[in-house]
Design goal:
The protein has 256 residues and is α+β, with helices and mostly antiparallel strands. It folds into two domains: 163 residues, no CATH class; 55 residues, no CATH class. 40% of the residues lie in helices and 11% in strands. It contains seven helices and three strands; from the N terminus they run ααααβαββαα. The protein is elongated and about 115 Å long.
Length: 256
């Protein structure tokens, strides 16, 4: 029987280099994983920002009226690049952004492991698509057509944001990923918004006899309202007159 120390001496050469091999195998697996986890988090943050941009675009498209035209897709793309995809420390500008690319850099968080930005050219990697759909149900067509009710129907305003971060060279599978993030938001607006009380009154008066039946009778009503009340020492009646935004006299600066 061989001594125990001789058996240990014989077994040692077979175990030589095993820990180094295990370390290399684990490094080949864990290093790409550790490099991918921050990148996945940046993709998630980029997707969340894209969702915010879609909400902004849908809202800006829906708030239209006589005092504000619908912005173009190019103008909204410039706005979201400047106001949403820019660094958080960037100031908010009151001037409307035009269709040109913003000179500000994108959010510095969205960089790969080599420090290169995922949105190196925001003008070509951030796009906006707009869409609207008017309700064409039979009831809407009936009210707008045969009955002469000229009221604007409800409209769906859709804002779609497309963000295409560039591939990350040297880090599979992100080197050939070709990722494109799409987010869209839909707002249903009745587009009855007006610039003020006078605009609301004009819309109601021009809505047709079904919505404003007083207008066809205004000539007769005003004639009788101006002649008969003064005979009994009352003030003349004006048919259809509406006093908008009247405050009590004690609320006025000059008082009662």
């Amino acid at each position: 029987m061989k001594p125990r120390h001789l058996l240990l001496a014989i077994a040692r050469p077979a175990e030589s280099g095993q820990s180094t091999t295990e370390f290399l195998v684990l490094a080949l697996v864990l290093v790409p994983l550790f490099m991918s986890l921050p990148l996945l988090g940046k993709y998630l943050d980029l997707a969340h920002t894209t969702e915010q941009a879609a909400r902004y675009v849908a809202f800006e498209t829906a708030i239209t009226g006589p005092a504000r035209r619908t912005p173009t897709a190019e103008a909204l793309a410039a706005q979201v690049r400047e106001r949403i995809f820019s660094p958080s420390a960037a100031p908010i500008l009151s001037r409307p952004a035009d269709a040109t690319a913003s000179g500000r850099p994108a959010n510095p968080l969205w960089t790969d492991h080599r420090g290169e930005h995922l949105l190196s050219d925001p003008a070509s990697r951030v796009g906006v698509e707009l869409g609207s759909h008017t309700d064409t149900a039979p009831a809407s067509a009936l009210l707008a057509g045969s009955l002469g009710l000229d009221l604007p129907a409800g409209t769906e305003y859709t804002g779609t944001i497309r963000v295409s971060p560039r591939n990350v060279p040297g880090l599979a599978p992100f080197d050939t990923l070709g990722l494109t993030i799409h987010r869209h938001q839909v707002l249903l607006g009745h587009n009855w918004s007006a610039a003020g009380s006078a605009e609301y009154a004009r819309r109601i008066e021009d809505a047709g006899p079904l919505a404003y039946p007083i207008q066809p009778l205004a000539l007769i009503g005003n004639t009788l309202g101006r002649v008969l009340p003064p005979l009994v020492l009352d003030e003349a009646i004006e048919v259809g007159r509406v006093e908008a935004e009247i405050l009590p006299c004690d609320r006025l600066e000059e008082g009662c």
